[in-house]
Amino acid sequence: MRIEDKILLREIxxxxxxxxxxxxxxxYPSLLRYAEGFVxxxxxxxxxxQNIFVHIWEQAEYLTITTSFKSYLYASVRNRCLNHIxxxxxxxxxxxxxxxxxxxxxxxxxxxxxxxxKVESAIEALPxxxxxxxRLKYMEEKSVREIAQQxxxxxNTIKTHLLRAKGKLRKSLRESLNLNFFL
Length: 183
Fold this sequence. Notes:
Structural class: mainly alpha
CATH topology of the largest domain: Rna Polymerase Sigma Factor, Chain: A
Radius of gyration: 21 Å
Shape: elongated
Number of domains: 2
Helix content: over 70%
Distance between the termini: 42 Å
Strand content: under 5%
Largest sheet: none
Number of helices: 8
Number of strands: 0
Order of helices and strands: HHHHHHHH
CATH architecture of the largest domain: Orthogonal Bundle
């Protein structure tokens, strides 16, 4: 750990607001852009980065940093973004199972039929390539590898498109249905 980082840590542990504010102002914009590389929702990225700074401030006396502050901050952002994505995958899997069950149910009532229309409409509103990938993954139940081979693009591109599709669908359905259980 560099001497500058040791001094910075010591000052933050002393609750020096000026030093903390300088740290925040120096790193916040770049950490926000870094988070947006993982999570495609601006507001969520802001929350993640701000929560890291809140954690640093509140836990300053217990904070142990063995690397540079910069490395610590970027690793914290990466880990929190990956945790968020992991949690979304778990939630999305359950929501998609519900969605699939409701789309395949022949005895749906009027309200569910309306929801299904809005879901289909939201899927149709996706950009063509993203919609195609979403349908292949969740309606035709193809693996990421199978989709990548079929469309001749990388698996990472498929994963990125799926994350974007989920984000766009979440936003669209939140606005049109006000359904928190789906989101």
